[in-house]
Amino acid sequence: MAAQAAAAAQAAAAAQVAAAQAAQAEAAESWYLALLGFAEHFRTSSPPKIRLCVHCLQAVFPFKPPQRIEARTHLQLGSVLYHHTKNSEQARSHLEKAWLISQQIPQFEDVKFEAASLLSELYCQENSVDAAKPLLRKAIQISQQTPYWHCRLLFQLAQLHTLEKDLVSACDLLGVGAEYARVVGSEYTRALFLLSKGMLLLMERKLQEVHPLLTLCGQIVENWQGNPIQKESLRVFFLVLQVTHYLDAGQVKSVKPCLKQLQQCIQTISTLHDDEILPSNPADLFHWLPKEHMCVLVYLVTVMHSMQAGYLEKAQKYTDKALMQLEKLKMLDCSPILSSFQVILLEHIIMCRLVTGHKATALQEISQVCQLCQQSPRLFSNHAAQLHTLLGLYCVSVNCMDNAEAQFTTALRLTNHQELWAFIVTNLASVYIREGNRHQEVLYSLLERINPDHSFPVSSHCLRAAAFYVRGLFSFFQGRYNEAKRFLRETLKMSNAEDLNRLTACSLVLLGHIFYVLGNHRESNNMVVPAMQLASKIPDMSVQLWSSALLRDLNKACGNAMDAHEAAQMHQNFSQQLLQDHIEACSLPEHNLITWTDGPPPVQFQAQNGPNTSLASLL
Fold first, then answer.
1. SS3 helix, strand, coil % of the chain, rounded to 5?
2. Terminal Cα-to-Cα distance of the chain (whole angstroms)
3. Nearest residue to 87 via CA among 116, 125, 117
4. Which of 83, 214, 246, 344 has its CA at 20 to 30 Å from residue 61's CA atom?
5. CB 460 within 8 A of CB 419
């Protein structure tokens, strides 16, 4: 009986303890939910009341909550402080505590890996990459039973290596991710990993590895049956890589079927409705890009194609559409990729403006690129060489050859991109050719480094054709006309093969000039007339100016007074337009950018008293 009484007493005591714990847990849950509700209310207020949100979350800790609540609250505080304030020190402290505590709690993957992911982002923002890498590696190591987080963390570490320009390590991680996705039965995410790897291999110019990889990706994408938007987004990614590969190779004509498929694909995506049904495989919970971003990207590669092909009005049309879309997106989305898209679009349209005789507008857009780069050190680091190259092209257009040389030399110092290097050297060589005998030794050295007859440094069809043109220009200035004709005919053959209209127009007018000098007026006319027609179609103001001057002189020499007068009138009109634009550009305060060759872009510009450049080349 005593034993039974003791047992009953123990049972009663245990029941009381259990009841007390249950009441405490219920009370804890009620106060916790109340504080959490207030915090979320303040965070989502318009405008957000971040200080009050932080106070509510901090009020959780005095209650000495269970570890799960403590870890989650540290994560929430770290996330709010990281995304909504500049208090990175406190954000880091809370995220580090969330990561530390969550590792001690079983089945707490979401908090654990989100803390690791956010904390590594913060470390990178603070330039503590050496702290971010081991953190991500440990999170990857312990997340293999959680497919979504394992894939996401692999992508994140690969991106970190890419930003550090360690593309070999990034490719290795993406390869690991592709194999993991295959093992867990996610062909969709396997394709994302492989396409990302293909993108990096293209950046590294490892073309022998790219071709079989893209072939495999094409098969996976076509065979995968799943969410239509996800399938089409994979096709867009695949086609974007193919199109940019062709454009990098300067194959403007060969790319057309792929570009057409890409444009049709983005039209298909725009008609599909977002499916709210979540994939059954958690490893499939990824999107490459939002639909709206993909749309801008397709506009961008279309602009790149139009620029290379010499369809400058089409390039202008698509640039306007893309920039309008970007402005709308940037009101709601601060994603860095949108600023990258904007800078690349502006870089291409600036080149178009310089060709079409709108130097003042080009200069203002160069200034706009400077302003965008001032807001992001990483953006400036990635585009500094291109920015100085554009300034060099502008300097050539306003006949400031010393400044052009300084800008191109600065750009060469800042780039390790082979195609950009070849483009800059080609333009710098043309500057030295125009300058006469001042830089003979340097010029010969440059011409040897971009010799299109042997060991040309890049595989670009377009750049090799341009190198033949520069060789022809040099031979023309040297008075070696037969040699010049050989080089220019090679340019024509290559540019006709890939519809490189601007190079075709330039080669035709220079050949026409050579035949005119040699006294072969009929052959000169056969070159200059199609050059003029093509230049009008592009439109290329410099070639139109040059062609109209040649047509005027040709018709005079042949005694065609009316045709000579008409050509002279055209030449006068082009001269006036270019002269007016020249004066306007040189009068802008932004014209002082031509003297900037070091450090970040200058913030302010002093107004010019007036143009200080020679106008002789325009008249």
1. 80, 0, 20
2. 122
3. 125
4. 83
5. yes
pLDDT of 1 strictly over 70: no
Token reading at 608: 């010019």
Can you give the pLDDT at residue 297?
95
Residue located via tokens 């079989």: 212
pLDDT in the model for residue 17: 41
pLDDT tens track for 201-213: 998 888 888 889 9
pLDDT surpassing 70 at residue 276: no
Put simply, whether the predicted model's pTM sits higher than 0.90 gets the answer no
At 270, the pLDDT band (50, 70, 90 cuts) reads confident
Torsion-angle region of 610 (φ positive above 0: left; ψ -120 to 50: alpha; else: beta) = left
Tell me if 180 sits within 8 A of 150, measured CB to CB.
yes
Q: How far is CA 63 from CA 44, 55, 59, 406, 604, in A?
A: 25, 14, 8, 66, 54
Which pLDDT score is estimated for 607?
42
Check pLDDT > 90 for residue 438: no
Q: Which two tokens stand for residue 402?
A: 């010393």
pLDDT confidence tier of residue 101, bands split at 50, 70 and 90: very high
For residue 58 the two structure tokens come to: 């901090």
Return phi, psi of residue 64, to 5°: 50, 65
Contact 597, 407 (CB under 8 A): yes
Rounded CA separation 120/109 (Å): 16
- DSSP, residue by residue, 511-577: HHHHHHHTT-HHHHHHHHHHHHHHHHHTT-HHHHHHHHHHHHHHHHHTT-HHHHHHHHHHHHHHHHH
Residues ≥6 apart with Cβ < 8 Å to 271: none
CA distances from 363 to 203, 347, 410 (A): 29, 11, 18
Do residues 244 and 202 make contact, with C-beta atoms less than 8 angstroms apart? yes
What are the C-alpha distances in Å from 35 to residues 32, 56, 76, 402? 5, 6, 12, 67
Q: Are 265 and 236 in contact (CB under 8 A)?
A: yes
In whole angstroms, give the CA distance from residue 496 to residue 197.
34
Integer angstrom CA distances of residue 292 from 233, 337, 399: 11, 12, 41
Nearest to 588 by CA among 617, 609, 614: 609
- pLDDT > 70: percent of the chain: 92
* Helix boundaries (H) for 249-376: 256-271, 291-309, 312-332, 336-356, 359-374
